[in-house]
């Protein structure tokens, strides 16, 4: 029997945090009249209370407004409460506001640390320095009303009972950034405080096409199963979860219709790493190569369960260290390739060089059949399903950043043109490039998307971002 949410217990959207000497109290101030949350500063234990405790001359609290409780993180001796202190509304998802975390802060519940050994105190201090870095984690988004972890198709397919569950219960755990930090709050049944947070990207724009207005949104959802930054986190783990796995969803809304197209990216699903040294490009090292077929099979089994058919595009170089990785990847894929899983190698650097991205038309010609057959998700003006996306394109290069960004933006462009023709907005030969304002906004949309993903994995914007932003008009070239 599924646990149903109390309709009166929606997520709190604004709260007041009271800092007493021995406790924190989180008081809802959005008019919902809910209970307050009390957190012990001794050990981080939590309970609901009816009202804020009385203040006195010896219990003068600090007070500040917060916009969400992200969760509780336990270190060696203390626990640390993480809250959102500033937010920015960046758009809407199916009519519900989407917010970006502008600032967040850890509040220590570590009074018990006073009685800890000196060595433990020193280690705790080192971990605290890492928490200061974590407070600046980029690209965190949330909604109080809608499940941001699910694509439009999966959101529409939620059963009626599932839609009654608290948002954290509906969420795809792969994309729940604060999954671990929510555990103690889940144990305490604090549903109105349990705010799902996604790491990734969220951008949208509106553009006029004749008399019609099109709204385009691009969302990235970063997987939490194999986290870490470039160089330090590569390849797959033994369960098939890969580094830098990101789901990108392009959504258009126009004339009452909603269309969605999902792509994914992720590191080459082998057990490999790149030992950082003083060289410009550290060597790749494949470990436990005998396990490669099993790891690849697990990865693609998971993809097929979640997305249906899979076309894997491998963009790495044919020669050198990248070529060695690609060869092992292709060999392992022989155990996977079938009706519902395809593999294609496309040497991006050899064919496109550094600027000739119009040559991606060569790639598109090879994948067009899969691309068209597996479609996209479409709702009509009555909210009825008209089309389903039956499969996904999985793209990788080495970092799954620059070459992947350019390729995915080309596929997004092609799909948008298909959708606009389907809706009767474009004629058979019309392309995005023939609408300068739409073309410019679309390129900027994908460039910003790529920059966000790159910053989270590598610490810098995408190297090819400016080409996507200012020069790339792949569909115009593909149509020639």
UniProtKB/TrEMBL annotation:
Any one GO molecular function term: phosphatase activity
Leader peptide range in chain numbering: none
Check the record and name the Pfam families matching this protein.
Answer: Syja_N
Q: Where is the SAC domain?
A: 131-459
Protein name from the UniProt record? Phosphoinositide phosphatase SAC6 isoform X2
Q: From which source organism is this entry?
A: Nicotiana tabacum
Q: Which gene encodes it?
A: LOC107799584
């Amino acid at each position: 029997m599924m646990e149903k949410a109390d309709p009166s217990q929606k997520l709190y959207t604004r709260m007041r945090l009271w800092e007493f000497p021995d406790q924190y109290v989180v008081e809802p101030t959005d008019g919902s009249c809910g209970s307050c949350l009390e957190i012990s500063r001794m050990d981080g234990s939590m309970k609901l209370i009816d009202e804020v405790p009385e203040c006195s001359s010896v219990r003068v609290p600090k007070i500040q407004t917060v916009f969400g409780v992200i969760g509780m993180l336990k270190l060696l001796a203390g626990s640390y409460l993480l809250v959102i202190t500033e937010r920015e509304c960046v758009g809407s998802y199916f009519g519900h506001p989407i917010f970006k975390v502008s600032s967040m802060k850890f509040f220590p519940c570590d009074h018990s640390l006073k009685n800890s050994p000196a060595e433990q105190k020193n280690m705790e201090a080192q971990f605290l320095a890492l928490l200061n870095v974590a407070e600046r984690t980029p690209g965190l988004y949330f909604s109080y009303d809608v499940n941001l972890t699910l694509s439009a198709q999966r959101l529409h397919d939620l059963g009626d009972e599932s839609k009654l569950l608290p948002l954290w219960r509906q969420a795809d755990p792969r994309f729940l950034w604060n999954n671990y930090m929510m555990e103690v709050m889940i144990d305490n049944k604090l549903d109105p405080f349990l705010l799902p947070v996604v790491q990734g990207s969220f951008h949208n724009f509106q553009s006029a096409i004749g008399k019609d207005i099109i709204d385009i949104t691009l969302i990235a959802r970063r997987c939490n199963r194999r986290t870490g930054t470039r160089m330090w986190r590569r390849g797959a783990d033994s369960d098939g979860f890969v580094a830098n796995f990101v789901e990108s969803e392009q959504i258009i809304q126009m004339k009452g219709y909603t269309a969605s197209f999902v792509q994914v990216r992720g590191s080459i699903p082998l057990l490999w790493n790149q030992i950082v040294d003083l060289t410009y490009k550290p060597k790749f090292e494949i470990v436990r190569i005998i396990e490669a077929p099993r790891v690849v099979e697990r990865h693609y089994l998971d993809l097929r369960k979640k997305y249906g058919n899979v076309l894997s595009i491998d963009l790495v170089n044919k020669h050198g260290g990248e070529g060695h990785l690609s060869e092992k990847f292709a060999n392992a894929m022989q155990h996977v390739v079938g009706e519902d899983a395809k593999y294609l190698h496309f040497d991006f650097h050899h064919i496109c060089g550094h600027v000739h991205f119009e040559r991606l038309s060569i790639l598109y010609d090879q994948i067009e059949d899969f691309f068209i057959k597996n479609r996209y998700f479409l709702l009509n003006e009555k909210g009825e399903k008209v089309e389903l996306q039956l499969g996904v394109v999985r793209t990788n290069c080495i970092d799954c950043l620059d070459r992947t960004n350019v390729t995915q933006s080309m596929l997004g462009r092609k799909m948008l043109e298909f959708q606009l023709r389907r809706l009767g907005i474009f004629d058979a030969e019309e392309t995005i490039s023939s609408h300068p304002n739409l073309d410019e906004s679309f390129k900027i949309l994908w460039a910003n998307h790529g920059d966000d993903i790159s910053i989270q994995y590598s610490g810098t914007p995408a190297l090819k971002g400016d080409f996507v932003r200012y020069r790339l008009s792949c569909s115009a070239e593909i149509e020639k």
